[in-house]
Amino acid sequence: MPERSFFIDGMQYPVCARDTGTSIAFLFVFIYGMVLKRYRNAMIPDRYVLILVLAGVALYAFDGASSYIGLRETTNALRLASGLMMGAGLGLICVTLTSFVLLGKRNEARTFTWRDIPIVYGMIAIIGLAIYLIGSGISFYYLVGALITVGYILLFFVLAGVFIALLRDLNYAERGKRYRLLAFSIVAEVGIFVILWGVHYYLGTTLP
Asked: Whole-model pTM?
């Protein structure tokens, strides 16, 4: 819906404001964890990080559910903020899942601690302000569109991989299992996007 999306020079972003924040925040936080090699640590984030993750999920659920059922009106700024919080939480958790499930790490070092909070949430705040305030520039439009696409591809790839790894006892640490896990994850992700496209097409052609 156009009223739920941001525009640059009259061009609408490919997804709504909430999904824009979710995908981009996830991408940057996941990259942050990978660059700092947090995938080598297997313990869940500390309580302070987990509190913020849960707060992001709660904000996302409240803003989305309460507006969809008509309890309150929301704005694109709130949609973007709730999406950014949710995406950051997904990034923090997915790095941990990558370590423990996909790579089979088993140590007592935490993936994230309170020291990461100012960096992670400061980063997504800057990203959110840029998306909200920059209203012109074709280059920025395509940059954000590309980040949204890459963010969702990576998110579904990681989640599909975690589900398959748990279901079939696979991981990337063992040579004999990594290629099967990779192949299954790619097939699953393609299937997810086909289903999502089908739902989108159906709703777009049947709803008034």
From this structure: 0.91
